[in-house]
Specification:
Radius of gyration: 20 Å
Strand content: 15-25%
Largest sheet: 7 strands, mixed
CATH topology of the largest domain: Rossmann fold
Shape: globular
Strand order of the largest sheet: 8-7-6-9-12-17-18
Number of domains: 2
Number of helices: 12
Number of strands: 18
Helix content: 40-55%
CATH class of the largest domain: Alpha Beta
Bound molecules: 5-S-methyl-1-O-phosphono-5-thio-D-ribulose
Length: about 375
């Protein structure tokens, strides 16, 4: 998508073979491109959320394994020695962010490619090809999600007799969280190209404010009208009739259609349900986890440092943090929550729009 009129993706390989990404921790204040030179760079970038969002952390993880094999070869490792170094780094990559299933999906695909051949140089090439393929697949999936979601937006727009549509979203499920287009934002970007009049409500998404910082920045650069509201205001704008549909992303969706997404999604879904507003979840098939039956019990919910709750980050002659709670008070920082399938109108996937139930999910995945 566009940044100052120039097209960017979230992660790419430059002409010199270097892995490049955008430092999301500096947005919206500064646009900085970073090079991920080592597997440790990738691990740090995913952990501290320089790179964030389910599909893109999956792809970054795959490049991390590629860099690890390169490091192993430079150290002179071959055979078992190279295997154990690669596995050690893969485990570290997997542990960076436990909730989004995309990371596990990518690491597994990448390791399959690693074990497919014998020679270290072949392994390296295989893994690089797989990482590149994962990137391409995620980008294409986002575009397809956009095409499928566009049908819903068009229908609503026609129903509203071409009056401006109000769409509410939570967190950042845009191109920054994917490779391009996004999940929740992909249909919105495509609707813009069709001339559909839209206004987007963005919930700020405390504690890290991915909505206020990243979604707002993306939409601003791509010319889409939007307003930032506090997380607590979502229900009120719905009650006032100011929301036609809600669309969010997902970090992991179960076989039963229960959706794990950024903390606060559940409350937004409850408010949408109470106000009879359609609540859509947009996700690529890499975000399904067919092994989970009970989302609340089985999905590992990331708990981040409580300082992200106790301090707020903003810009004043540079990016600064200020304490907003009593220093000695305890805080908890849950990263994600579970929205039960009964609150979800439909899942917008790259394989079509489906009801959030086992039969429909199995039909597109198996
Ligand atoms: O903690 P984050 O910023 O990585 O969480 C991101 C989200 O929760 C997104 O909604 C999710 O990754 C799905 S959209 C691509």
């Amino acid at each position: 998508m566009l940044v100052n009129g120039k097209h960017y993706k979230t992660i790419w390989i430059d002409k010199g073979g270097k892995i490049k990404t955008i430092d999301q921790n500096l947005l919206p204040f500064k646009f900085k491109i970073l090079t991920l030179d080592s597997s440790e760079d990738v691990i740090t970038a995913i952990k501290n959320m320089t790179v964030r969002g389910a599909p893109v952390i999956g792809v970054a993880g795959a490049y991390g394994i590629y860099l690890a094999i390169k490091e192993g070869i430079i150290k002179g490792y071959r055979g078992k020695e190279l295997d154990s170094y690669t596995i050690k780094v893969s485990k570290k990559i997997l542990s960076t962010r436990p909730t989004a299933i995309n990371l596990k999906y990518s690491v597994e695909r990448t390791l399959e490619a690693y074990y497919f051949t014998e020679l270290p140089e072949q392994k390296l090439l295989n893994v690089l090809n797989t990482a590149n393929q994962l990137l391409k697949t995620e980008e294409e999936a986002s575009y397809k999600i956009g095409i499928n979601g566009l049908r819903i937006i068009k229908n609503l727009f026609n129903k509203k007799k071409h009056k401006e549509l109000n769409i509410l979203t939570h967190c950042n499920a845009g191109w920054l969280a994917c490779i391009d287009y996004g999940t929740a934002l992909a249909p919105i970007y495509l609707a813009k190209t069709e001339g559909i009049k839209m206004h987007i409500w963005i919930e700020e998404t405390r504690p890290r404010n991915q909505g206020a910082r990243l979604t707002a920045w993306e939409l601003l650069h791509n010319g889409i009208k939007h307003t930032i509201i506090t997380d607590n205001a979502g229900g009120y704008v719905m009650q006032k009739g100011l929301v036609d549909m809600v669309i969010v992303g997902s970090d992991r969706t179960t076989i039963n259609g229960d959706v794990c997404n950024k903390i606060g999604t559940y409350k937004t879904a409850l408010a949408a349900f109470d106000n009879k507003i359609p609540f859509y979840v947009a996700l690529p098939i890499s975000s399904f986890d067919l092994k989970i039956n009970n989302a609340l019990k089985e999905i590992p919910i990331e708990e981040r440092n409580s300082d992200e709750v106790k301090f707020i980050e903003g810009y004043n002659k540079g990016i600064n943090k200020v304490l907003i709670t009593p220093q000695k008070s305890k805080a908890k920082n849950f990263g994600f929550d579970i929205t039960p399938a009964r609150l979800v109108t439909a899942l917008i996937t790259d394989k079509g729009i489906i009801r959030p139930d086992k039969k429909q999910i199995e039909k597109i995945l198996l």
